[in-house]
Amino acid sequence: MTCKHINKVRLGDDVGEKVLSVTVGKDKEAQTFSIHKNLLQKVTKYFDKLIATEDGQMGLIFMKDEDPEVFKMFYDWLYTGNIPKAPASFTLDKPASQAEIQSLEVELRGRFDAHVRKLCTLYYLGEKYDIQHLLNNTIDIIQDAFHEYGTVFGPGLLVSIFENTRTGSKLRELCIAANVIHTDRGCDQLRRELIMASIMAEGFFEEMMTWISRNFVMFGRRYAEGFDNSKRTQGFSMLNRKKLCPCHFHKHTNVKDAHKNHKKCAVPYLKCGHQEESDESMDRSA
C-alpha cells in the first residue's frame, strides 16, 4: 500500500528553460534562489499572481516575510524530493560515563527540538502555498521523528502549531492524536501539558474533544495491540505509520493520489443511536 505523495518529486521533461530569481528574507539575511518557473507552478498556484506582476514578468520575485532557511528546505525538496530527518539517536565510539551520556542526551534533545520546529515551519509554508505533496511528505517526517525519538508534542510547540495552521489542519490532528493516545502511560506531566495547551492554544480543546469523540476505535486498538515504553517502535501508536493507513494524516484533493482502497481505511465517525424525531411528533407526544 503506497501513497503517490510518498514518492519523490519527479521533474519529468516539463521543467522548461525559464528561471525565476526568488529573493527571500530581508536585508543581510536575504537569500536568492534560482527556480524553474514550470516546476514551481507544477506544485503550487500560489506564485501565479507574483509571476504576473511587473517584477515577475522580468523573472524577479521578492518574499521579504519568509524565512530563508525554511525556504531553502522547500527549495531542496522541490528539486530532490528529500526532507532532512530529525536526529533521534546518537552513537558512542567508546565507553562513556553516565555524566557524558546525559550530556549527549541533552544535546540530542536540543537538536531534535530545533529540527522539529523547522519541519513544522516547513509545514506552515506548505499550508500557506497549498502544496499538498509537500504537506504530506513533511508530516510523514514529523510523525516518524516523534515515533523514533519516543516523545510527543510539547505545549510550546502545540501553541505554535495552532497559531500558524488552519482549523482542520492535519498537523493539528497529528498533535492531538499523538498526545491524547499516549495518556495511558500514566504520565502526569503529559496530562498537565494537555491542560496547558487547552488553555493557551485557541481551538485546541474543541478540536481535541472532536478527535476523541470520532476516534474511540483507536483507543481500542491501543489496548488490544499494546504499547511498551521500552520498545517504542512496536505496538500501536498514532505515531507508528506502519500501524495506520499510509494516508491517515495526508491531505488529498484528488483521492486518486492516495493509496489504492484508501476509502476503506477511513474510520467512520461514531453516531448517536437515537433516531431524530420531527418537531411535529414531539408536539404530539407533549
UniProtKB/TrEMBL annotation:
Coiled coil regions in record: none
Pfam families: BTB
Highest taxon above the source species: Eukaryota
Domain BTB: residue ranges: 16-87
Signal peptide positions (record): none
Family matches, as PANTHER family: BTB DOMAIN-CONTAINING PROTEIN-RELATED
The protein's name in its UniProt record: BTB domain-containing protein
